[in-house]
């Protein structure tokens, strides 16, 4: 199954057959622009969507049925990430905080202040132990995924960070910046171990 969004027109999520390309369902509920959608990695076909209406919605990614609406953010919700086992969902946005949710119950588990500007990207480490966040303040942060404890601040660039990604073993976080640098960070020490410069766009 494939999913797509139409951000500026009807605020819907659309499901498509991944083989034939045929439309399967239109998911209606958000009342403002949808910023991101993500499928759970656990095979449950749960689909999460985040919107400028301040809500997160959990859908059955096969039937399009609405499973839950998660509320608590006081601004636009810009970023989502499922834990590797699909049991947790982390969200962030314009209210500058990260919220951690129980997917099965919809319960808010943790809220922690994250950045001095909107949280616009989130990612779980492959082992589910850490969360990486990217903020509009130009920083990347690492957090304990179980407790919300702040672990490391990563900041060694002159322009915004365009992308973050964990290595498969979770030992390294790669960051790419519009200043033309790519850096590899040790996730345990929060130290840059490799810095490549000279890229025109990253």
Shape: globular
Q: What's the helix count?
A: 0
Q: Strand order of the main beta sheet, please?
A: 4-5-6-7
Low-pLDDT segments, ≥5 res: none
CATH topology: Methylamine Dehydrogenase, Chain H
Question: What is the beta-strand fraction?
Answer: over 45%
Number of domains: 1
CATH class value: Mainly Beta
> H/E series, N to C?
EEEEEEEEEEEEEEEEEEE
CATH architecture name: 7 Propeller
**CA-based gyration radius:** 17 Å
Structural class: mainly beta
Count of extended strands:
19
Gap between N and C termini: 30 Å
* Mean of pLDDT: 92
Largest sheet: 4 strands, antiparallel
Structural description of this entry:
With 202 residues, this protein is an all-beta fold. The chain has a single domain, classed as Methylamine Dehydrogenase, Chain H (7 Propeller), CATH 2.130.10. It contains no helices and 19 strands. The chain has strands spanning 2-5, 13-16, 23-27, 34-39, 46-51, 56-60, 66-70, 77-82, 88-93, 97-102, 108-113, 119-124, 130-135, 140-144, 150-154, 161-166, 172-177, 182-186, 191-196. The protein has a four-stranded antiparallel β-sheet, with no helix packed on it. A four-stranded antiparallel β-sheet has the order 8-9-10-11, with no helix packed on it. Strands 12-13-14-15 form a four-stranded antiparallel β-sheet, with no helix packed on it. The mean pLDDT is 92.
């Amino acid at each position: 199954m494939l999913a797509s969004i139409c951000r500026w027109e009807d605020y819907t999520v659309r499901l498509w057959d991944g083989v034939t390309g045929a439309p399967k369902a239109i998911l209606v509920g958000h009342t403002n622009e949808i910023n991101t959608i993500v499928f759970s990695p656990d095979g449950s076909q749960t689909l999460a969507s985040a919107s400028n209406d301040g809500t997160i919605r959990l859908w059955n990614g096969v039937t399009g049925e609405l499973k839950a609406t998660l509320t608590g953010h006081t601004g636009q919700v810009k970023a989502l990430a499922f834990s590797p086992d699909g049991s947790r969902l982390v969200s962030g946005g314009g209210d500058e905080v990260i919220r951690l949710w129980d997917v099965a119950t919809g319960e808010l588990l943790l809220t922690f202040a994250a950045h001095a500007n909107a949280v616009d990207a989130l990612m779980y480490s492959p082992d589910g132990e850490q969360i990486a966040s990217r903020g509009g303040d130009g920083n990347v942060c690492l957090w304990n995924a179980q407790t919300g404890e702040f672990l490391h601040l990563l900041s060694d660039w002159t322009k915004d960070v365009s992308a973050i990604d964990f290595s498969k073993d979770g030992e390294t976080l790669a960051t790419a910046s519009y200043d033309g640098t790519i850096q590899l960070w040790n996730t345990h020490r929060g130290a840059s171990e490799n810095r490549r410069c000279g890229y025109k766009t990253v």
